[in-house]
Specification:
Four copies of one chain form a homotetramer. By secondary structure, chain A is an alpha/beta fold. Chain A folds into two domains: about 160 residues, NAD(P)-binding Rossmann-like Domain (Rossmann fold); about 160 residues, Dihydrodipicolinate Reductase, domain 2, CATH 3.30.360. Helices cover about 30% and strands about 20% of the residues of chain A. In chain A, the strands form two sheets. Chain A has a seven-stranded parallel beta sheet, with helices on both faces. A seven-stranded mixed beta sheet of chain A has the order 9-10-8-11-14-13-12. In chain A, β2, α2 and β3 form a beta-alpha-beta unit. In chain A, α1 packs across α13 and α7 packs parallel to α13. The radius of gyration of chain A is 20 Å and the shape is globular. The interface between C and D is large, with 39 and 39 residues.
């Protein structure tokens, strides 16, 4: 059994990791780290765990964590600064949910995060945990930077068309809509029920950090620098991200031809479901799962592809992708514990 | 492996059975019966199943079903009239989701359902599938009448206090609130999003059929005829039933004392979680699970207990309880496939 | 024009008062008091007011307020302690949204609020602002204690049957469901979108302060002391309260007979809509309005009436009732500014 | 008083017209046409109107309608084919909610609607009722084609930047999100509560009819043919459209400069609220109102403007804009009856 610590276990990403791991056949949860709920049973903090998981939240204790094989770190930016190097040093594998270990180029990180990086060497070593693209590197990684929620959805949606050379690298627009769990469990007027329900809005237009993460990967796909418009929106649902991606085509083609490119590109990927022509993703199809659904329409009038991709922001956008990474890192079937259909209802 | 047919697989109760069974380690789904979607892949009807379950919906064919070990019948009232006797005759075990096999007394059924019963002998033989109360009978049953959603929640909430003799059998009120999946997938103005969201209402006041089912069981608990006010309400959420139950006490006692009675009564029950004093159930704690959460407050001013019980109407109120029954009928650990924590988010 | 100050203008009750008054033909808004948003334009705090209401929030300044004819005080408990006597002294009429001036008996207040009352003389003088019952007293009042949201809904729902002598004063149950605006704009985990949506729960069972307010009025209706079970529930919608009220009958009667009693009792009341037999209230019918909808079913099996009443907790449960009181106090047609149909959508 | 008929009064657009007109000081509602609810009181169909509007729905009777001054036609496509010419002939002014009278070029209509136009002469005469752009023509119109919901939001959002010459007419993307009332009251699985809530999706990608309407107007703004990507999305709320519009800039400029262009362009428009830099629209700010909120961010990295516009699809996107048109046609202050702040809550 793989011994696991979840640090920051009581945030939304953390608790979704816990929920999935509590039923993972190869895992033993050892440590639930939570500063805010230190000493409380997890079933007091999240009532759904009563009778299922009998564990107590605890303040971070590196020696306790050191007994584990792997740590998921879902800590506030900065809080993980000292923690992760210590864990690596103690021989743990680490899957980090923050933005700190997702970048190839430290300058990009420092520009978009507005701060110096605290562990340049570890950044150098870390692997970007978008499993479908970096599976081989993840296998032997000690430290994985788990991708952002918007980015997983958007990169996987746009990658094949750029990689194939069919998509033009200019004028790419990613218009993304996220459920409210993406904003986390912290309190703020913006996540008050009465302010959120029956409401939609764009936010951080042209400035959201995930822009840089998407650009990094799409540039690699295109083989040249890609800069995109990325606009995140908050919509009144808990789970789900829908990315609508606009890519001009380098030559005329049909919807079916682009779909074929995607089906070929993802032909071995269990978690990626490319829709047939005429079908489009809906977030309820992926909620509660690790799946990525992708639908494509070519607007022949405009010689432009409209690609719609959907994930569960807590699933493929956070927790279940982290577990997919763990499965890969420990040589398990990568579907273990996360192969199920989503909730739909 | 137990070979399973789900008849009426594309309604909400049916598809939740399918969703759970698609990950049940001892089950092989053989037949998905659906009149409306005959010939369509289940993943076209419910997109969450793509890559997970590769099956096609089919029109009812008794010979096909006869190859199975057990059938879940989630058919419209009446549609199952001829089907169930045939299946029993062919040697299948049947777990029926309708109200047809839940009654001890055929007259009660005929009064509340306003029609003659088509299979009095099978009704006689059938077992009421409220597992926590009738586990032993379920073990050897050929035909289980799976309880209604409101009834599972309400009976389990009120049973111990009446059984103990502490609760008075007069003036019992069950005020229940249900999510909209309880109304099924059929179309009607009452389930239109714009008519449902931001809206609550009572319906079928004093006439809902589940009244009779609750009364049947509470009468057995009390050892005398119990008649209750049962008021169902529709509230704007998908999953969840919350029953608020008012029972006068035969003698003064404290909240803690009543909780103790409940904890003792349910001490061996994994799926029933009696809350400590000061804690109350919330539907998000049980959504997506087979759990029943029960909280109790004694109003000493009034010498009355207020008992709040919560279930997922699609879970313990329908699909997962049906699977719990199946597990019992086939000698499996009754938690198999349904032991997980609910979604919470 | 009546010059109005709204103190605590940026809470949910306060802003609903402002919204209605901004279109009231006989009112001039003079002061929007807000400690938290002092110096900010109201349209920055609530974007719906841009181009409609050009006013700035201001810290409480009694001299400024003194220029008004009437003040609505929607201040935190305690904050209004010194304010209200000063305003009265300066000759303003005051409509207070807190619980401080709703009681006949100071002892009841002090028991349920757990504190000494700071202005016993004003409590003595104040009028309980449930317009349909106390219209005559409101006319000449200097200080009105505007009723609570649950209480308006519940008292108006139960009053006629008790007043008529048909309803028995024992075993009355009020099971009430409220939208989340009732919890106010303050931040807390309980009002986080992801914790609220798709969730229902009971809270403050047997201890909610509104119990005492309902009992006070129903005791007057019954002509004897009435004690009730009152259970508030939080349901995932913004606006609306639905109270389901159970009252045993002193003699057998029909649904139609009870409805007739209600229609007669409320025959001159514009804002109270008693439903015909077979019809029941829904919160969407009253959302955004000052209406109270009441539906009745007699359960002849049990000789018990089930009365369902619905209001908008921000409307008749707070803001529009406060304005109805203002209209009465200033000799206007009481419907002025609040006569419109609710939103429905 | 203007005598008004609303034909198709019980659909969502129709009933919102009725709701607003029931409080319009210059209007007398004379006829509520409804095929489905012929003979029923409007308060039976929409319970919010009880005590407010005492009218009965009636089957279409041209002689009855002929007594009115103006008719709002919210009839199914085709149903209005014969009706509108008759009404015009009888001397009524007509405001049509369908797509039939919104086009300059009959060929565009016939291409996008896939049918011959039944009244080419009336189309020729009709005025496109986007008040802020065509106020002068509306004044003297007999027949107004009220704009579509998506189109009002999108055209008003993009018009100034194209008109100014700053926006490039190529590569314009309009990514729009709509609440579910936009889908109407008709029944379908897509509007079932359990299928809609907690779900988002794109639909009719590259084929939605509103594309042609937006292109018609933006082409006039740009002075050359504009072709756009328009992607509608369904999001889980009742009211509200949010359009996120991407326009490349012909020369570098700042957010503030573009905002200034918008503020100047709309400086006399009460119903258009251009946000200051750093502020963005939210649908709750416009829900229940006739306002259009517009926010702008220039992404200087990409030399592209991102414009976010928000309306209530039932308000400025349908009913209140229709009433704004009526006000203009009858020489009233165009704000009459629709000047209020939206609900927010």
């Amino acid at each position: 059994m793989i011994k696991v610590a979840v640090l920051g276990a009581t945030g939304y990403a953390g608790i979704e990791i816990v929920r999935i791991l509590s039923a993972h056949p190869e895992v033993k949860l050892e440590v639930l780290g939570s500063h805010s709920f230190d000493g409380q049973d997890i079933s007091e903090v999240y009532g759904n765990f009563a009778h299922v998981l009998d564990m107590t939240c605890e303040e971070l204790d590196l020696d306790r964590v050191a007994e584990c094989d792997v740590a998921f770190t879902a800590l506030p930016h900065g809080a993980s600064k000292d923690v992760i190097p210590s864990l690596i040093e103690k021989g743990l594998k680490v899957i980090d949910m923050s933005g700190d270990f997702r970048y190839d180029d430290i300058k990009v990180y420092e520009k978009w995060y507005g701060q110096e990086h605290s562990s340049p060497e570890l950044l150098e070593e870390s692997v970007y945990g978008l499993c479908e693209l970096y599976r081989d590197k993840v296998k032997s990684a000690r430290l994985v930077g788990n991708p952002g929620c918007y980015t997983s959805c958007s990169i996987l949606g746009a990658y094949p068309i750029l990689k194939s050379g069919l998509g033009n690298s200019k004028n790419i627009i990613v218009d993304a809509k996220s459920g409210v769990t993406g904003a986390g469990r912290g309190l703020g007027l913006g996540t008050h029920f009465c302010e959120c329900t029956e409401n939609s809005k764009a936010y951080k237009v042209a400035t959201h950090r995930h822009t840089s993460e998407i650009e990094q990967e799409l540039s690699k796909a295109a083989g040249e620098e890609v800069m995109i418009s990325f606009t995140p929106h908050l919509i009144p649902q808990k789970r789900g991200i829908l990315s609508t991606i606009y890519v001009n085509l380098n030559k005329p083609c049909t919807t079916e031809e682009v779909i074929e490119i995607y089906k070929e590109f993802y032909k071995d990927e269990y978690f990626i479901r490319v829709k047939d022509a005429g079908k489009l993703p809906e977030t309820k199809h992926v909620a509660g799962s690790n799946f990525v659904d992708i639908g494509i329409v070519v607007d022949e009038r405009l010689n432009r592809a409209v690609i719609v991709s959907a994930i569960d922001n807590l699933g493929k956008g956070a927790a279940s992708q982290a577990i997919q990474n763990m499965n890969i890192m420990f040589g398990l079937d990568e579907k273990t514990g996360i192969e199920r259909a989503g909730f739909y209802l």
